[in-house]
Design brief:
With about 200 residues, the protein is an all-alpha fold. Helix content is about 70%, strand content about 0%. The chain has one domain. α5 (about 105-115) runs antiparallel to α6.
């Protein structure tokens, strides 16, 4: 056994921690959608007014939840190929999860101040940072096949998978730019994710 092999660690604990944090964070997102107390009179009109005022928060919740879902799927697929971990990989993954855990705050911030460039920019910057570290995780794991194994993971497939890992942070970077010009349009950048991934 080589010196590097002695530092290899199993993936099970990393996967368990990651799945648990994703489950908690994706659940916390919905807590920002508070239902108002029912008024004594004219409740129907009050409910319509509430829904008319708060529907943007609901859309931002959907956006945040779906983007976290994308990251969970990517993370899950990465661990299909990753057979072992080491200390550096674990710490990169911890940074990844730390940025994922910011999502409820940045989602809530955009929900409250979505008409402001800064609020949209902060949310998009959070998504960009998560995507960037996710990409770094995969680049680190696949460099010289450091942590991956399996005959199906040919050099060509690894190269394509690296291109795919750049899609989400690339779209988030575009969203950051749009948020500084027209905040309400920044979300449209994320619609490009499935279109680009389908072509790769």
């Amino acid at each position: 056994m080589s010196a590097s092999e002695k530092n290899w660690l199993p993936t099970s604990r990393v996967e368990a921690l990651s799945d648990g944090i994703f489950a908690i964070i994706m659940t916390i997102l919905v807590l920002d959608l508070a239902v108002p107390d029912a008024p004594v009179t004219n409740a129907d009109a009050a409910l319509r007014a509430f829904l008319a005022e708060d529907w943007p928060k609901l859309l931002i919740y959907f956006k945040g939840f779906l983007l976290l879902g994308v990251f969970w799927v990517i993370h899950h697929k990465q661990f299909y190929a990753i057979r072992r971990t080491d200390g550096a990989f674990i710490w990169i993954n911890i940074i990844f999860l730390m940025l994922v855990a910011l999502a409820p705050f940045t989602t809530s911030l955009e929900g409250e101040y979505g008409n402001l460039s800064l609020a949209s920019f902060i949310f998009d910057a959070n998504i960009f940072a998560v995507g960037l570290v996710s990409m770094l995780l995969w680049f680190y794991a696949t460099r010289n096949r450091r942590l991956v194994s399996g005959e199906e993971f040919t050099p060509q497939r690894i190269r394509i998978s690296r291109y795919r890992s750049m899609v989400v942070p690339g779209c988030a970077l575009l969203a950051m730019g749009l948020s500084l010009v027209i905040p309400v349009w920044s979300s449209l950048a994320y619609l490009m994710i499935p279109l680009i991934l389908k072509r790769l």
